């Protein structure tokens, strides 16, 4: 069972797609959000959850005080599920921030994205190649606030993101069992010219 861990919607149960996604485990989400909360990166943040699957990461951010959350998924069944999950979280929050589910490819969404985003979750399915991930990160870079944090989640055996190729820089990384999380950020303005 997947649920919101903490915040105003803590305990809200979320549906997950029956196949084709690998939801972030509760233990990993708890560790991740503990670090994000400690750094003051969630409350008031404009969040985008790319390859959202069930929407668990973005909706967890909403529960913890994010100012807005965009959930991007291409599979129509997953988008319908994300919308149901967002309705549950909105009901639990009472006065929710804007929670928007978008049926689009990541690069398609980013062509017209409003941004800027302060916190970005990138949790691609296994079949997304390293080149496609770099393309998505490159498309994302212009939509980031100067102090944004981008978190890429993949299997620990996967190579890390090619941050520099995408116009970003690495911040840190963590491994939780079979899951690796790489944190990145925009290059300082003087280096991105």
UniProtKB/TrEMBL annotation:
<dbReference type="GO" id="GO:0031167">
    <property type="term" value="P:rRNA methylation"/>
</dbReference>
<dbReference type="GO" id="GO:0008168">
    <property type="term" value="F:methyltransferase activity"/>
</dbReference>
<dbReference type="GO" id="GO:0003676">
    <property type="term" value="F:nucleic acid binding"/>
</dbReference>
<protein>
    <submittedName>
        <fullName>RsmD family RNA methyltransferase</fullName>
    </submittedName>
</protein>
<dbReference type="InterPro" id="IPR004398">
    <property type="entry name" value="RNA_MeTrfase_RsmD"/>
</dbReference>
<keyword id="KW-0808">Transferase</keyword>
<dbReference type="InterPro" id="IPR002052">
    <property type="entry name" value="DNA_methylase_N6_adenine_CS"/>
</dbReference>
<dbReference type="Pfam" id="PF03602">
    <property type="entry name" value="Cons_hypoth95"/>
</dbReference>
<dbReference type="InterPro" id="IPR029063">
    <property type="entry name" value="SAM-dependent_MTases_sf"/>
</dbReference>
<feature type="region of interest" description="Disordered">
    <location>
        <begin position="1"/>
        <end position="24"/>
    </location>
</feature>
<keyword id="KW-0489">Methyltransferase</keyword>
């Amino acid at each position: 069972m997947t649920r919101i861990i903490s915040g105003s919607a803590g305990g809200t149960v979320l549906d997950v797609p029956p196949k084709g996604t690998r939801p972030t485990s509760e233990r990993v989400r708890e560790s991740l959000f503990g670090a994000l909360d400690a750094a003051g990166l969630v409350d008031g943040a404009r969040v985008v959850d790319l390859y959202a699957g069930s929407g668990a990461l973005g909706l967890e951010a909403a529960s913890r005080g994010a100012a807005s959350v965009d959930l991007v998924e291409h599979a129509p069944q997953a988008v319908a599920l994300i919308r149901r999950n967002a309705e549950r979280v909105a009901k639990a929050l009472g006065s929710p921030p804007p929670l928007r589910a978008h049926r689009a490819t990541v690069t398609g969404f980013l062509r017209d994205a409003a941004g800027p985003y302060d916190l970005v979750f990138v949790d691609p399915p296994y079949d997304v190649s390293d080149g496609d991930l770099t393309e998505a990160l490159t498309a994302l870079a212009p939509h980031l606030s100067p102090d944004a944090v981008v978190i890429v989640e993949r299997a620990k055996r996967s190579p890390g993101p090619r941050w520099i190729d995408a116009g970003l820089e690495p911040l840190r990384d963590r491994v939780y069992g079979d899951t690796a999380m790489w944190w990145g950020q925009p290059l300082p303005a003087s280096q991105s010219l």
